[in-house]
Amino acid sequence: METTLRFQPVSHSWVALHPKPKGVIQFIGGAFFGTFAPMLFYRYLLRYLFDNGYTIILLPFNFTFDHYVEAGFLIKEEYEIIPELIRRAKFAGYDYKAYLSDRNFSWIGHSIGCKYVALLEAFSALPREPEQLEEVIRDIVTKTSNPSETAKNERKIQTIVQNLESLINDLKQRRARATQLIKYYLGKEQDTYWDRREDPNIDKTYFKNLFIKGQTSILLAPVNSGTDSAIPKFLAKFIDKLGWGVKPTPQETFALIQATNLFNLLGLVSFKSDKLAKSTCEWFVNTFKKPPTDLQNNLAGGHLKPLGIKLGGYVVNFPDSLPIIESPQRRNAELEIYVGKLLGALEEERSS
Protein backbone atom coordinates (compact mmCIF):
# COMPACT_ATOMS: atom_id res chain seq x y z
CA MET A 1 0.00 0.00 0.00
CA GLU A 2 1.46 3.36 -1.05
CA THR A 3 2.36 5.70 1.79
CA THR A 4 0.98 9.21 1.40
CA LEU A 5 3.48 12.02 0.94
CA ARG A 6 1.92 14.78 3.01
CA PHE A 7 3.82 17.86 4.17
CA GLN A 8 2.90 19.58 7.41
CA PRO A 9 4.27 22.89 8.75
CA VAL A 10 6.79 22.50 11.58
CA SER A 11 8.52 25.63 12.86
CA HIS A 12 9.41 27.55 9.66
CA SER A 13 9.72 24.39 7.55
CA TRP A 14 7.63 21.62 6.01
CA VAL A 15 7.90 17.98 7.11
CA ALA A 16 6.65 14.71 5.60
CA LEU A 17 6.83 11.99 8.27
CA HIS A 18 7.57 8.48 7.08
CA PRO A 19 5.87 5.72 9.12
CA LYS A 20 9.08 3.64 9.24
CA PRO A 21 11.96 6.00 8.49
CA LYS A 22 15.50 4.76 7.98
CA GLY A 23 16.74 8.34 8.03
CA VAL A 24 15.91 11.99 7.52
CA ILE A 25 16.68 14.16 4.50
CA GLN A 26 16.87 17.92 4.97
CA PHE A 27 16.32 19.46 1.55
CA ILE A 28 17.24 23.00 0.49
CA GLY A 29 16.20 24.00 -3.03
CA GLY A 30 17.42 26.69 -5.37
CA ALA A 31 16.46 30.35 -5.59
CA PHE A 32 12.73 30.91 -6.03
CA PHE A 33 11.93 27.18 -6.38
CA GLY A 34 13.34 26.43 -2.94
CA THR A 35 11.55 29.38 -1.35
CA PHE A 36 8.11 29.19 -2.94
CA ALA A 37 6.36 25.80 -2.81
CA PRO A 38 9.41 23.49 -2.99
CA MET A 39 7.06 20.58 -2.22
CA LEU A 40 5.49 21.25 -5.63
CA PHE A 41 8.49 22.05 -7.82
CA TYR A 42 10.67 19.20 -6.46
CA ARG A 43 7.81 16.81 -5.81
CA TYR A 44 8.93 13.93 -8.04
CA LEU A 45 12.40 13.74 -6.47
CA LEU A 46 10.97 14.15 -2.96
CA ARG A 47 8.37 11.44 -3.62
CA TYR A 48 11.13 9.04 -4.70
CA LEU A 49 13.17 9.72 -1.56
CA PHE A 50 10.10 9.36 0.66
CA ASP A 51 9.18 6.05 -0.98
CA ASN A 52 12.70 4.84 -0.26
CA GLY A 53 12.20 5.26 3.47
CA TYR A 54 13.16 8.82 4.36
CA THR A 55 11.33 11.44 6.35
CA ILE A 56 11.65 14.70 4.39
CA ILE A 57 12.27 18.18 5.85
CA LEU A 58 11.94 21.07 3.41
CA LEU A 59 13.95 24.02 4.65
CA PRO A 60 12.96 27.30 2.99
CA PHE A 61 15.29 30.28 2.98
CA ASN A 62 14.85 34.00 2.60
CA PHE A 63 16.27 36.05 -0.24
CA THR A 64 19.19 37.78 1.41
CA PHE A 65 22.77 38.66 0.60
CA ASP A 66 23.95 37.52 4.04
CA HIS A 67 24.36 33.80 3.56
CA TYR A 68 26.11 33.48 6.92
CA VAL A 69 22.87 34.48 8.63
CA GLU A 70 20.72 32.24 6.46
CA ALA A 71 22.95 29.20 7.06
CA GLY A 72 22.65 29.90 10.78
CA PHE A 73 18.87 29.98 10.47
CA LEU A 74 18.88 26.55 8.80
CA ILE A 75 20.90 24.85 11.54
CA LYS A 76 18.69 26.48 14.18
CA GLU A 77 15.73 24.88 12.42
CA GLU A 78 17.27 21.43 12.91
CA TYR A 79 17.24 21.90 16.68
CA GLU A 80 13.65 23.13 16.57
CA ILE A 81 12.42 20.29 14.37
CA ILE A 82 14.05 17.14 15.80
CA PRO A 83 12.09 17.09 19.10
CA GLU A 84 8.90 17.79 17.15
CA LEU A 85 9.60 14.84 14.84
CA ILE A 86 9.69 12.55 17.85
CA ARG A 87 6.54 14.02 19.39
CA ARG A 88 4.52 13.80 16.17
CA ALA A 89 5.79 10.32 15.29
CA LYS A 90 4.83 9.00 18.74
CA PHE A 91 1.38 10.58 18.47
CA ALA A 92 0.85 9.04 15.00
CA GLY A 93 2.12 5.62 16.08
CA TYR A 94 5.11 5.83 13.73
CA ASP A 95 8.61 4.49 14.31
CA TYR A 96 10.86 7.25 15.63
CA LYS A 97 14.17 5.49 16.40
CA ALA A 98 15.86 7.19 13.42
CA TYR A 99 15.29 10.58 15.04
CA LEU A 100 17.22 9.70 18.20
CA SER A 101 20.61 10.39 16.62
CA ASP A 102 21.59 13.30 14.42
CA ARG A 103 23.85 10.90 12.51
CA ASN A 104 20.70 9.63 10.75
CA PHE A 105 20.15 13.07 9.22
CA SER A 106 21.35 13.91 5.70
CA TRP A 107 21.37 17.09 3.63
CA ILE A 108 20.52 17.54 -0.04
CA GLY A 109 20.91 20.93 -1.68
CA HIS A 110 20.19 22.18 -5.16
CA SER A 111 21.79 25.21 -6.83
CA ILE A 112 22.32 28.06 -4.31
CA GLY A 113 20.88 25.79 -1.60
CA CYS A 114 24.14 23.85 -1.80
CA LYS A 115 26.05 26.90 -0.59
CA TYR A 116 24.17 26.84 2.71
CA VAL A 117 24.96 23.14 3.16
CA ALA A 118 28.62 23.82 2.39
CA LEU A 119 28.74 26.67 4.91
CA LEU A 120 27.27 24.49 7.65
CA GLU A 121 29.79 21.76 6.88
CA ALA A 122 32.61 24.31 7.04
CA PHE A 123 31.29 25.75 10.31
CA SER A 124 31.53 22.22 11.77
CA ALA A 125 35.32 22.36 11.65
CA LEU A 126 35.85 25.92 12.86
CA PRO A 127 37.67 26.25 16.19
CA ARG A 128 35.51 27.20 19.18
CA GLU A 129 38.15 29.27 20.99
CA PRO A 130 37.77 32.99 20.08
CA GLU A 131 41.46 33.56 19.34
CA GLN A 132 41.75 30.52 17.08
CA LEU A 133 38.45 31.32 15.35
CA GLU A 134 39.63 34.85 14.59
CA GLU A 135 42.92 33.52 13.25
CA VAL A 136 41.12 31.29 10.73
CA ILE A 137 38.71 34.02 9.62
CA ARG A 138 41.52 36.59 9.37
CA ASP A 139 43.50 34.27 7.11
CA ILE A 140 40.47 33.72 4.84
CA VAL A 141 39.60 37.41 4.55
CA THR A 142 43.24 38.41 4.01
CA LYS A 143 43.64 35.94 1.16
CA THR A 144 40.47 37.01 -0.63
CA SER A 145 40.30 40.79 -0.08
CA ASN A 146 42.04 43.86 -1.42
CA PRO A 147 45.10 44.30 0.87
CA SER A 148 44.91 48.09 0.53
CA GLU A 149 41.51 48.21 2.28
CA THR A 150 42.92 47.49 5.74
CA ALA A 151 40.20 49.16 7.81
CA LYS A 152 37.39 47.61 5.77
CA ASN A 153 38.94 44.15 6.02
CA GLU A 154 39.37 44.48 9.78
CA ARG A 155 35.70 45.43 10.21
CA LYS A 156 34.72 42.45 8.11
CA ILE A 157 36.87 40.09 10.19
CA GLN A 158 35.46 41.32 13.49
CA THR A 159 31.87 41.18 12.22
CA ILE A 160 32.22 37.60 10.97
CA VAL A 161 33.89 36.43 14.18
CA GLN A 162 31.30 38.11 16.40
CA ASN A 163 28.41 36.68 14.38
CA LEU A 164 29.88 33.17 14.44
CA GLU A 165 30.50 33.35 18.19
CA SER A 166 26.93 34.50 18.69
CA LEU A 167 25.63 31.66 16.51
CA ILE A 168 27.70 29.06 18.40
CA ASN A 169 26.44 30.28 21.78
CA ASP A 170 22.86 30.34 20.52
CA LEU A 171 23.16 26.79 19.18
CA LYS A 172 24.50 25.52 22.49
CA GLN A 173 21.38 26.85 24.21
CA ARG A 174 19.12 25.41 21.52
CA ARG A 175 20.84 22.03 21.78
CA ALA A 176 20.31 21.94 25.54
CA ARG A 177 16.65 22.90 25.14
CA ALA A 178 16.09 20.35 22.36
CA THR A 179 17.71 17.62 24.45
CA GLN A 180 15.37 18.36 27.37
CA LEU A 181 12.36 18.27 25.06
CA ILE A 182 13.42 14.92 23.61
CA LYS A 183 13.82 13.47 27.10
CA TYR A 184 10.39 14.79 28.04
CA TYR A 185 8.71 13.32 24.96
CA LEU A 186 10.42 9.96 25.44
CA GLY A 187 9.69 9.78 29.17
CA LYS A 188 10.96 6.52 30.65
CA GLU A 189 11.86 5.26 27.19
CA GLN A 190 15.01 7.38 27.19
CA ASP A 191 16.56 5.14 29.86
CA THR A 192 15.99 2.11 27.65
CA TYR A 193 17.52 4.00 24.73
CA TRP A 194 20.73 4.70 26.64
CA ASP A 195 20.90 1.12 27.92
CA ARG A 196 21.09 -0.06 24.31
CA ARG A 197 24.13 2.08 23.52
CA GLU A 198 27.25 0.01 22.89
CA ASP A 199 29.64 2.21 24.86
CA PRO A 200 28.49 2.93 28.43
CA ASN A 201 30.94 5.84 28.62
CA ILE A 202 29.57 7.59 25.55
CA ASP A 203 28.43 11.18 26.00
CA LYS A 204 24.70 10.93 26.55
CA THR A 205 23.48 13.50 24.08
CA TYR A 206 21.24 13.12 21.06
CA PHE A 207 23.40 15.63 19.18
CA LYS A 208 26.98 14.52 18.57
CA ASN A 209 28.09 17.82 17.02
CA LEU A 210 26.94 21.41 17.18
CA PHE A 211 26.73 21.74 13.40
CA ILE A 212 26.51 18.92 10.80
CA LYS A 213 29.77 16.99 11.14
CA GLY A 214 29.03 13.29 10.72
CA GLN A 215 25.94 13.95 8.61
CA THR A 216 26.05 13.03 4.92
CA SER A 217 25.29 15.56 2.20
CA ILE A 218 24.63 15.62 -1.54
CA LEU A 219 25.08 18.71 -3.70
CA LEU A 220 22.94 18.80 -6.84
CA ALA A 221 24.31 21.30 -9.37
CA PRO A 222 25.91 23.52 -6.69
CA VAL A 223 26.25 27.24 -7.39
CA ASN A 224 28.64 29.44 -5.42
CA SER A 225 27.28 32.71 -6.71
CA GLY A 226 28.04 36.32 -5.94
CA THR A 227 26.05 39.54 -5.92
CA ASP A 228 26.12 39.79 -9.72
CA SER A 229 24.02 36.63 -10.02
CA ALA A 230 21.08 38.36 -8.34
CA ILE A 231 21.27 41.91 -9.71
CA PRO A 232 22.81 43.60 -12.80
CA LYS A 233 26.61 43.56 -12.82
CA PHE A 234 27.08 47.34 -12.85
CA LEU A 235 24.89 47.61 -9.75
CA ALA A 236 26.52 44.55 -8.11
CA LYS A 237 29.97 46.21 -8.28
CA PHE A 238 28.60 49.27 -6.51
CA ILE A 239 26.83 47.19 -3.86
CA ASP A 240 29.96 45.09 -3.25
CA LYS A 241 32.11 48.20 -2.92
CA LEU A 242 29.80 49.48 -0.18
CA GLY A 243 30.11 46.14 1.62
CA TRP A 244 26.43 45.30 1.14
CA GLY A 245 26.91 42.42 -1.27
CA VAL A 246 26.84 38.65 -0.85
CA LYS A 247 28.50 37.37 2.33
CA PRO A 248 30.62 35.35 2.12
CA THR A 249 31.78 36.15 -1.39
CA PRO A 250 32.40 33.20 -3.74
CA GLN A 251 36.16 33.54 -3.12
CA GLU A 252 35.67 33.58 0.67
CA THR A 253 33.35 30.56 0.46
CA PHE A 254 35.92 28.51 -1.45
CA ALA A 255 38.66 29.61 0.95
CA LEU A 256 36.50 28.65 3.95
CA ILE A 257 35.83 25.21 2.48
CA GLN A 258 39.55 24.66 1.88
CA ALA A 259 40.56 25.95 5.31
CA THR A 260 38.18 23.64 7.19
CA ASN A 261 38.80 20.67 4.86
CA LEU A 262 35.95 18.41 6.01
CA PHE A 263 33.48 17.28 3.32
CA ASN A 264 34.42 13.62 3.72
CA LEU A 265 30.78 12.48 3.52
CA LEU A 266 29.91 14.44 0.37
CA GLY A 267 28.27 13.39 -2.87
CA LEU A 268 28.28 15.61 -5.98
CA VAL A 269 25.88 15.53 -8.94
CA SER A 270 26.47 17.75 -11.98
CA PHE A 271 24.55 17.95 -15.26
CA LYS A 272 26.05 17.88 -18.72
CA SER A 273 24.21 20.89 -20.18
CA ASP A 274 24.33 22.98 -16.99
CA LYS A 275 26.45 26.09 -17.50
CA LEU A 276 25.32 27.80 -14.29
CA ALA A 277 26.91 25.26 -11.92
CA LYS A 278 29.81 24.30 -14.20
CA SER A 279 32.53 26.39 -12.53
CA THR A 280 31.52 25.41 -8.98
CA CYS A 281 31.44 21.71 -9.83
CA GLU A 282 34.82 21.98 -11.54
CA TRP A 283 36.25 23.70 -8.46
CA PHE A 284 35.16 20.83 -6.19
CA VAL A 285 36.55 18.19 -8.55
CA ASN A 286 39.73 19.83 -9.85
CA THR A 287 40.81 22.21 -7.06
CA PHE A 288 39.35 20.84 -3.84
CA LYS A 289 39.73 17.22 -5.04
CA LYS A 290 36.54 16.15 -3.28
CA PRO A 291 34.46 14.08 -3.34
CA PRO A 292 36.20 10.97 -4.71
CA THR A 293 35.18 9.83 -8.18
CA ASP A 294 32.89 7.07 -6.90
CA LEU A 295 30.81 9.73 -5.13
CA GLN A 296 30.44 11.94 -8.24
CA ASN A 297 27.99 11.72 -11.11
CA ASN A 298 27.75 13.79 -14.29
CA LEU A 299 24.24 13.20 -15.59
CA ALA A 300 22.16 14.22 -18.58
CA GLY A 301 20.10 17.38 -18.24
CA GLY A 302 20.30 21.04 -17.34
CA HIS A 303 20.48 23.03 -14.14
CA LEU A 304 16.80 22.51 -13.33
CA LYS A 305 16.84 18.73 -13.78
CA PRO A 306 16.09 18.05 -10.06
CA LEU A 307 12.73 19.79 -10.52
CA GLY A 308 9.87 17.68 -11.80
CA ILE A 309 6.20 16.92 -11.29
CA LYS A 310 4.32 13.69 -11.99
CA LEU A 311 1.09 14.15 -13.94
CA GLY A 312 -0.82 10.96 -14.56
CA GLY A 313 1.63 8.33 -15.76
CA TYR A 314 4.32 10.81 -16.84
CA VAL A 315 6.91 13.16 -15.32
CA VAL A 316 7.01 16.79 -16.47
CA ASN A 317 10.52 18.27 -16.44
CA PHE A 318 11.49 21.91 -16.79
CA PRO A 319 12.42 23.07 -20.32
CA ASP A 320 16.21 23.00 -19.80
CA SER A 321 16.13 19.21 -19.45
CA LEU A 322 14.76 17.34 -22.46
CA PRO A 323 12.53 15.53 -22.93
CA ILE A 324 10.06 17.73 -21.11
CA ILE A 325 7.65 14.81 -20.71
CA GLU A 326 8.98 11.33 -19.99
CA SER A 327 8.11 8.10 -18.24
CA PRO A 328 8.92 7.64 -14.53
CA GLN A 329 11.22 4.75 -15.44
CA ARG A 330 13.34 6.92 -17.74
CA ARG A 331 13.35 9.85 -15.31
CA ASN A 332 14.45 7.57 -12.42
CA ALA A 333 17.27 6.17 -14.55
CA GLU A 334 18.47 9.72 -15.31
CA LEU A 335 18.54 11.09 -11.75
CA GLU A 336 16.65 9.54 -8.84
CA ILE A 337 18.39 6.16 -8.93
CA TYR A 338 21.79 7.88 -8.77
CA VAL A 339 20.74 10.01 -5.80
CA GLY A 340 19.51 6.89 -4.00
CA LYS A 341 22.80 5.11 -4.69
CA LEU A 342 24.77 8.09 -3.45
CA LEU A 343 22.81 8.13 -0.19
CA GLY A 344 23.56 4.44 0.31
CA ALA A 345 27.25 4.81 -0.55
CA LEU A 346 27.63 7.79 1.80
CA GLU A 347 25.95 5.91 4.63
CA GLU A 348 28.37 3.00 4.11
CA GLU A 349 31.26 5.48 4.15
CA ARG A 350 29.99 7.07 7.36
CA SER A 351 29.49 3.71 9.07
CA SER A 352 33.02 2.60 8.20
Specify the structural class: alpha/beta
Oligomer: single chain
**Averaged pLDDT, please?**
90
The overall strand count is 11
Give unreliable regions as ranges: none
Radius of gyration, Cα only, in angstroms? 20 Å
Largest sheet: 8 strands, mixed
Shape: globular
Order of helices and strands: EEEHHEHEHHHHEHHEHEEEEH
Features:
single chain; 352 residues; alpha/beta; 8-stranded mixed sheet; 3-stranded antiparallel sheet; 47% helix
Describe this structure in a few short sentences.
The chain is of the alpha/beta class. It has helices at 38-41, 43-51, 67-92, 113-124, 130-144, 150-186, 189-195, 233-241, 250-260, 278-288, 328-351, and strands spanning 8-10, 13-16, 23-28, 54-58, 105-110, 217-220, 266-271, 296-299, 309-311, 314-316, 325-326. Helices cover 47% and strands 13% of the residues.
